[in-house]
Amino acid sequence: MPPTNEECLAFWNEQHAKGYDGLRSRLNAIREKWPATANQMAYYDWSSRRADNEMAQAMVPVPREDLVTMIATMNYNRDTDRGRLVNALERAVAPWIPVGSYRNGKIYRIAPGAFGLRADDDDPKTNREVVSDNVLGVNTNVQPTVPYRSRKANFSEVSTKSNESDDSEIGGFVFHQIGTLQYWGDKVENLRSYEDAARGPWLPTEFCVVIRFGRSGTANGVYLIYDFYPRDELGDGERDLRVDNDNWGQLPGDCSGQQFSVAKIANEITELRFGRTFELTHVLDYPIELVRTVKTPEDTIIRATIA
Question: What local confidence, expressed as pLDDT, does residue 159 receive?
Answer without folding.
Answer: 64
